[in-house]
Design goal:
The protein is of the alpha+beta class. The longest helix has 29 residues, at 31-59. The chain contains 2 helices and 8 strands. It has helices spanning 8-25, 31-59, and strands spanning 68-72, 76-81, 86-92, 98-101, 104-107, 120-124, 129-134, 141-145. Helix content is 32%, strand content 29%. The strands form 2 sheets. It has a 4-stranded antiparallel beta sheet, with helices on one face. The chain has a 4-stranded antiparallel beta sheet with strand order 4-6-7-8, with helices on one face. Strand 2 (76-81) and strand 3 (86-92) form a beta hairpin. It is elongated, with a radius of gyration of 24 Å. It has a domain at 45-145: minor pseudopilin epsh domain (minor pseudopilin epsh fold).
């Protein structure tokens, strides 16, 4: 009687061959590409949350004349209601992505940056850097890759 299947020795041999290939291939992976992707994602997320903060300021202008702010910390940032200091949302940055420069972006009820608010931040990792800017008069958010 013939049985279809593989012996234990055959299975162990296949696992050993795959392990050897992985041992050779993994060190050759470009971890820089992972860092680039995380930096790209972080700058897009930060830009989206700045736009979200501006949208909150405009949408709640009747109830909240003081506006909303996005406040940076060492590990991420928070969206804060300036009327009652309530935290609306927060997000963490990936460990290898850093934000340097400005720390507080305050939007008034018309969606503009308030007087004394910061207007730019630099988002960077070891392999890529961006400068994210907010147009003070309109609150428009844009970013550009640094060379």
């Amino acid at each position: 009687m013939t049985r279809a299947g593989h012996t234990l020795v055959e299975c162990i041999t296949v696992v050993l061959i795959l392990s050897a290939l992985a041992f050779i291939a993994v060190p050759r992976l470009s971890w820089g590409a992972v860092s680039v992707a995380q930096t790209d994602a972080a700058v897009r997320q930060l830009a989206t949350d700045l736009r979200r903060t501006r949208m909150y300021a405009i949408a709640h202008a009747a109830d909240n004349p003081t506006g909303y702010a996005l406040v940076m910390s060492d590990s991420g940032y928070q969206i804060v209601d300036l009327h009652d200091s309530a935290i609306v949302a927060s997000d963490d940055m990936p460990a290898q992505v850093r934000c340097t420069g400005r720390r507080s972006f305050e939007f008034g009820p018309l969606g503009n940056l308030t007087e004394g608010s910061d207007s730019w931040v630099r988002v960077h990792s070891t392999s890529r850097a961006y400068r994210l800017e907010i147009v003070p008069a309109t609150g428009a958010v844009k970013w550009q890759r640094e060379k």
